[in-house]
Automatic annotation (TrEMBL):
Lineage: superkingdom: Bacteria
Residues of the ABC transporter domain: 20-245
Gene Ontology MF, one: ATP binding
Keywords, ordered alphabetically: ATP-binding, Nucleotide-binding, Transport
Gene3D superfamilies, per the entry: P-loop containing nucleotide triphosphate hydrolases
Species of the source: Microbacterium marinilacus
InterPro entries found in the cross-reference section: AAA+_ATPase, ABC_transporter-like_ATP-bd, ABC_transpr_LolD-like, MacB-like_ATP-bd, P-loop_NTPase
Protein's name in the database: ABC transporter ATP-binding protein
Amino acid sequence: MTSTPTPTPIPPSTSTQALLSAAGLVKTYGPTRALDGVSLDVRAGEAVAIMGASGSGKTTLLHVLAGILPADQGAVTLQARSGPMRIDGLGERERSRVRREEFGFVFQQGLLIPELTAVENVALPLLLTGHARDAAEAHAAQWLGALGLGGMEQRRIGQLSGGQAQRVAIARAQATGARVLFADEPTGALDSATSADVMTALLDSTLAQGHALVVVTHDPQVAARCGRTIRMRDGRVVPEEAPEVAR
Ligand SMILES: Nc1ncnc2c1ncn2[C@@H]1O[C@H](COP(=O)(O)OP(=O)(O)O)[C@@H](O)[C@H]1O
Ligand SMILES: [Mg+2]
């Protein structure tokens, strides 16, 4: 059994080496090039927003970066605790271990289990990795408290507001000690004030630990909270500032 990760902040990495690095990613669905040569570095302690029109490849990129989906071409390298590790070359079983141990996920709808309480939802991934129930629930309660949900541990998901439920999803994603958090439209179902609160929770809980956040969003206000925004178009990253070309 592994030790329970704690929410105690660790000093951010001073290394400029990317925590997660993608190079030359290509992913096709029949004639559609969902990813057409995407390269991207995500550093420790950094929040990166991915924007772009519907169908531009944002979700596909997120899924390939996170080892959910294998690319047809290209490399995804994670700076693992043991050193650099190519996750694109791994089999499904190993990739799922990396996802479980290194990554956390927050989706538009939290994908929380309505029959379970807030604390049980957050503790679940810890139980699945072999932690004892008492320790898992104590750790889960700590994360709920850190995200402003103290006193709501025993509520079922239906007894929470949309913003509170999203903070439960963030607590669940953080509880296993994920070093990269992936969020796909995490505020897509929320009003703008709640959206700002959820972004604060996402950013604070990730960056304070020197971890990284990759967030797909349509909302410029969400992107503005991130240190960097990349724009996708037709499966490619749009160059940040195209130099003026004299004609
Ligand atoms: N499982 C799939 N099967 C076929 N086409 C897909 C699949 N997933 C995505 N696509 C296509 O790939 C392109 C990029 O999709 P996606 O990454 O979901 O874009 P976004 O998240 O930016 O809306 C779109 O043209 C979409 O229709
Ligand atoms: Mg999408």
